[in-house]
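hi! just following up on the protien thing from before. the input was this:
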Amino acid sequence: MRKKFLAFAVLSSITLSADVNVLTYAGETFYDKSRVNSLKDNSFSFGIYAEIKEKGSAWELLFNNTTVAYKSNTLLKDFTQQDFVANYSKFYDSSKIKLGVHYVNNNESSLYKDLGSAYIGILGLEAQSNFNNNTLHYGIEAYYSVYLNAHTEFTRASTAFIDVTQFSPYLTHITRLSSTLSNTLSLRLNAIAVTEYRDPGYLSFEVVDTMKYQSFYGSVKFLAGEMKSGVMNGGLEVYNTKDLVKGIYYFEAGYVVTPELRCSASFDIRMMQEYRGDTLTYMPEVMNNSLFFSLNYTIK
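and the predicted 3d structure came back as:
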């Protein structure tokens, strides 16, 4: 069960020189209509993200609220979830280090037999090299997720402590083709280990390409492999669930209205297998769709 989605692929590759960058967003996810394939009907998310830059450092702050609605012929009640994120980055001449924490406040009842609330620690190391009109960023992000009162895949009767470890090395190449045209290509590997699941390991691979021309920009993203209880987007997005992600197709288009204001719309298709805690099994693979809109304002 996916709780939230954030369209932040462009933020890492298109950054305006500013002290404060504020993004507000809202969107909805639509699940398969058949109860055989999914127990959920839809979910709605909204939130605010802020990046505060100082000399040699930066803060990232995020608040997200998600409401999940279940189909009327299930016994499950709708519930809400809040996400709070704080990341601090320290910049050096050609590198940076990031430390952060992501807290998930989840009020789902014991009927869901899922993971519930979570604490996620975030660590990132990055370096960069510049040559001609190109910039290469390379680094690794590590996430450690803790679920204190979660249900495992082996029993419905009791809860347990579940921890998830993830390492995500990545490369990002920025090419400035002209004064008005640039392209950013990112490659990322996600390796997840968790001893409390039947399958203790999951691997996925991400490719993101962002093109900017004058006031227009667009992004496409593709994820292949398998991801379970994973973390994405630099720690801003967490799958605090046992649903299995088997593929993602993501598209975003945006427009720079003024030097201080830009807007965007994004659409994604995610191949998922929803986990059923009442039977300790997975439902058939389906495609879930999400549509999000955002406004990004820069305060100089």
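DSSP finds no helices and 18 strands in the chain.
The CA atoms of residues 138 and 171 lie 5 Å apart.
cheers
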